[in-house]
Amino acid sequence: MKKTLLRIEGMTCSACSNGLEKYLNKQEGILNSSVNLVMANALIEYDETILDINQIEQFVKKAGFKSLGLYDAKVEENKNNKQKIEFIIYTILAVILLYISMGHMVGLPIFNFINMHHNPMNYTITLLILTIIFVIYGFDIIKNGIKNLIHKSPNMDTLVGIGVISSILYSLYSMVMISKGSNEYVHHLYFETAAIVIYFIKLGRYVDGISKDKTKDAIQKLVQITPNKAIIKVDGKEKEVTLDEIEKGDIVISHAGEKIAVDGEIVEGKAHLDESLIIGESKPVNKTIGNKVIAGSMNFDGYLEYKAEKIGKESTISQIVKLVLEATNTKAPIAKIADKVSGYFVPIVIIIAIITFIVYLILGFEVSEAIATFVTVLVVACPCALGLATPLAIVVSEGVCANKGILVKKSETLENAEKINTIVFDKTGTLTYGTLKISKIFNYSSLEEKELLQIAGSLEAKSTHPISKAFDEYLKKNKIQQLEVKEFENISGLGITGKINEKEIILGNSKILEHFSIENKHKQNENQLTNEGNSIIYVVENKKIIALIGVNDIIRENIENVIKTLNEKNIETIILTGDNEQTANIIAQKIGIKTVIANVMPTEKANKIKELKQQGKAVIMCGDGINDSPALAISDIGISVNSGTDIAMDSSDVILMKNDLSKIIDLIKISKKTIRNIKQNLFWAFFYNSLMIPISIGILKPIGISINPMIAGISMVISSLTVIANSLRLKK
Length: 732
Fold this sequence. Notes:
This protein is α+β, with helices and mostly antiparallel strands.
């Protein structure tokens, strides 16, 4: 048994991916296949004694698609501008087509050679040529529409296909009549209708394609967290190798400033490692002999030798990649309301049109009139308004969201947000800022706070300890100059010392006070800071404690009000973090969150989200780190703050551009209004069609009311304009 992941070209909808998956699973030798539409790949489990890759690729070809070879997330694909250039060209052609066909309506000058009144045949042939180009462009839409109709599952492609084919057939009939001298048929041409419908459907798919490309880029960025090369120890000497050359048991070397290459166990040395991108812990962790290291974490300040334990697909990073891919595969597709309506509406319209055509022939009407009525029924039921009902409301709402700093990447998000009843927050970098900051100062001296921090910051500037970054940030932000430090000394595990202005300065934890036999009268303040989740730094001048400083990961502004509002709306809030339980509980109590799930590894985060969903909850996951990406992908809606990592933002459905968590509440409100607007749009679209279909059949002919395809087209435009106007109301 063997597994392979193939990149697939040619899938445009869920019907494509489902069809390919079913076809592959029927083939002898293939044990199981899972086709991913979003990632455009197929995970295939097969018996290598029966099949090889070439045979599997032939199966893909027979199913109507193309294999682009093995999927390799480490290979950065060259950006292909073909689709973008193609779309720009068709946009220009669409403008030209509309100018030629409708320019005269607004008084625009038209060359006599293609003027519909002076040279109707030239005009008709020009529209036909341009329409053929668009039919080639959108042939996949027409093909899928027909395929779904054959499979008795009509969708929007079916509606588009019927509308396009009907318009072209009737236009061709009109073209024949024009060639016979009946120039009045120049007003019965619907070539441009067919072309423009295809253009707008392609526009939607182009935008959707951009979203898919971002998801692929996210996987590539995730893999690239690990370095390309590493240094291993061979016979006592250092040797540079690629990651693929590292084997289990090899001794890998890491210097300060380098990333850990593979998962392993330290056998020599010690250092502070920044694992925030992997496990979500904001404070760099002190690692020594016997401790585990994770690929992708950064070595801040030490020398390490570690034994390689997990390499390649077994590594933590690879497992996260796998989870993101699986989450994308298992994400259920959202069934569009319009598709549900069209599932019944389309076959009914087709049946009505066919029956009308037959009845007209039976009643003795001319074939031309029967055809005209048949096309009128189909044109009046054209999918334009029905097709616009959902996506237009979504696009307008996405614009509203963007103005509020909410970047919505997937249209389904605005359909799902109103159903949310549970929001899960990562702690580090989401509820907090994710960087160490000076949170509280107990000043026991006569110095001003800035003077005090100038002394501490100047000494900390000589240190490589991660806490020094909090002081460095303070000095830079307040434009405070560093003081000269003499006789600097680092006392391992305790703190640092040095002379500033001829005074002996000591910085460190409570143990450094014992080291220098300094009496500590500030235990109560220390306990207070510790209980608030702070790291402790005593500042000592000439053997006298002059300050106690707490360094912590600061809670984001306004988060208490956000949680309070969510609780009032009966939306459950949960903290899900890789940090320790004490720190998480302290923050939870401060901001009003009752449920805390702490000490959770990256692979477990996605499982926790799964468990919540299995309980019937509609879940938002809000995070910022690489460790959050699988959970973001598998949740109903993944939300990332803009200060988060690229992979977290690319795996999410929503990015909060201003890092303001109150925007989650805005998102839910906008979603509710959007769904209401979509339902209104569908009502009006269906109302117009229901009203005009009986008239198009000719039921009102006895009282002198009838319409032709041209009037049907105008009716279709009116229904579309109604939907557009209603959707634009969302801007308010």
